[in-house]
Amino acid sequence: MSSDPIQVLVCDDQPLVRTGYVTIFSAQPDMEVVGEADNGHAAVEAAQRLLPDVVVMDIRMPLLDGIEATRRLAGPDAVAPPKVLVVTTFNVDAYVYDALRAGASGFLLKDAPPAELVGGVRTVARGEALLAPAVTRSLIGHYAERLRPSDTSRPAREELIRALTRRELDVLELIAAGLSNAEIAETLFIASETVKTYVSRILTKLGLRDRVQAVVLAYRVGLVSGR
């Protein structure tokens, strides 16, 4: 594992919030803040110029919102995309789901304690998705209507079911329900390491980048209902 510090770009239109993030990250021995941006256009430009490992992205920003900025940086057409960690006031922002579809590696609430924010940056920097169970459940509860699949999703659902074993489907359903690996292990009476293996197999078989994409897919195709 590289000993180089995690390079972080902080993007938020509120100066006090940016200053707080910069102070928190700069105090970590394994992190370096390489830049700041106060709008979406500046975020995209700075990320393309500075090539950070992790972009901490607000959703509501002027000129270009965080969703479109995320899509430009980490969407399917992006070259060497950074990891994007969306930080949002969940009860206000109605577009968290869109941010995940745009390529975000995870999201946290703005009122998360500093230790959780720092841990989130480290998590996505390692290439893992940050999908806190409590936040996942909130996402499901608030956006069930948006997550409801269309009739055209049935073939995709059948293809997904054929691609996975019964146990892998069980694990995917529990991931989509917002359970952590430890909670899945307890529910299925298997070891946490076994859960990690199943998650890895699911991502590989479905061609998904991370746990976030697995949750989005599960709801899009109707594997789980969101209710």
TrEMBL record:
The keyword DNA-binding is assigned to this record: yes
Domain HTH luxR-type: 157-222
Entry's Gene Ontology BP terms: phosphorelay signal transduction system; regulation of DNA-templated transcription
UniProt entry tagged with the keyword Transcription regulation: yes
Entries under InterPro entries matching the protein: CheY-like_superfamily (IPR011006), NreC/VraR/RcsB-like_REC (IPR058245), Sig_transdc_resp-reg_C-effctor (IPR016032), Sig_transdc_resp-reg_receiver (IPR001789), Tscrpt_reg_LuxR_C (IPR000792), WalR-like (IPR039420)
Sequence positions bearing 4-aspartylphosphate: 58
Keywords: DNA-binding, Phosphoprotein, Transcription, Transcription regulation
Domain Response regulatory as annotated: residue spans: 7-125
PANTHER family recorded: TRANSCRIPTIONAL REGULATORY PROTEIN NARL-RELATED, TWO-COMPONENT RESPONSE REGULATOR
Protein name in UniProt: DNA-binding response regulator
The organism of origin for this protein: Acrocarpospora pleiomorpha
